[in-house]
Write a structure and sequence with these properties.
homodimer, mainly alpha, 2 strands, about 60% helix, about 5% strand, DNA-binding
DNA sequence: TCTTGAACCTCTAGCCACTAGAGCAACTAG
DNA sequence: CTAGTTGCTCTAGTGGCTAGAGGTTCAAGA
């Protein structure tokens, strides 16, 4: 049996965040000690690790809730889990594409500043005048 | 003189967002019509385009406020604007690196699912068991 | 000139995924 | 037994908007 702090240390999830996940229905309400403190077993530890991992991968609370629901029905076809993972992959790829465009833009802006004072600073000019941009964003 | 809706159409910034920027001090309180409606001139239009552009590049409201303050003092050295742009570039690059790791991870998870049912679904297993991951994240 | 409907106003509350803090109770090491 | 850490609940704040209520003003057509 782990206290909430123990669970926090083992999973790297902060204590208030664990309580938040419980509130959001990702973790079931755990047993309590006589003094009303949460006591977690191994299944809760594993589920929290699952949640942590999924959050690190960028899944929303809602997606995670869906996955948890699905994992409670091991006999169902797993097309839905696949779909959730693929959607997430698509979203991540799109974010990468957009960030790479930003990177190029910022590179140009940040390295081309040869002015001495704000008055002739390329950063300010580039931000003011979209026409100085290469790509579209 | 532009109405707020006009400004919105010209810059692609939504009407409530323009009011929000005013509230946040990025836009100065504009003139008003007799009936208390906002009336913007060309300088406001340009500043809003500046803000829009900077937001698109991922700068925070706070960074933008700093840049606006700086642009009001054209005689100062522009090291600060440079620093803000470079910091932003660094942040973007870091996000890209992290997202690429996620992409690889999700690729593996989403494409390796050969199971038929949730019970033997790789997605669920991979999320449960961090040890199945290649990299560290 | 009048009317109608779109656009505007302010104000408050909600979104996501936490995070911080107040004020109090329970546990644990010495 | 006591001191200090950890736990509890509850409320409110974060960033960058977005939505809605309830009311006012503007502009185009009749």
């Amino acid at each position: 049996m782990h206290s909430i702090g123990d669970l926090s240390r083992r999973t790297g999830v902060k204590v208030p965040t664990i309580r938040y996940y419980e509130q959001m229905g990702l973790l079931e309400a755990p047993e309590r000690s006589e003094g009303n403190q949460r006591r977690f077993g191994k299944p809760e530890l594993e589920r929290l690790a699952f949640i942590r991992h999924a959050r690190d991968l960028g899944l929303t609370i809602d997606s995670i809730r869906q996955l948890i629901d699905l994992s409670g029905h091991p006999d169902r076809p797993c097309g839905d889990t696949d779909r959730i993972a693929k959607e997430q992959l698509g979203a991540v790829r799109e974010r990468i594409v957009r960030l790479r465009r930003l990177e190029k833009e910022l590179e140009r802006i940040a390295t081309c500043c040869t002015g001495e004072t704000v008055g002739d600073c390329y950063v300010i000019r580039a931000l003011s005048d979209h026409a100085l941009c290469d790509g579209d964003h």
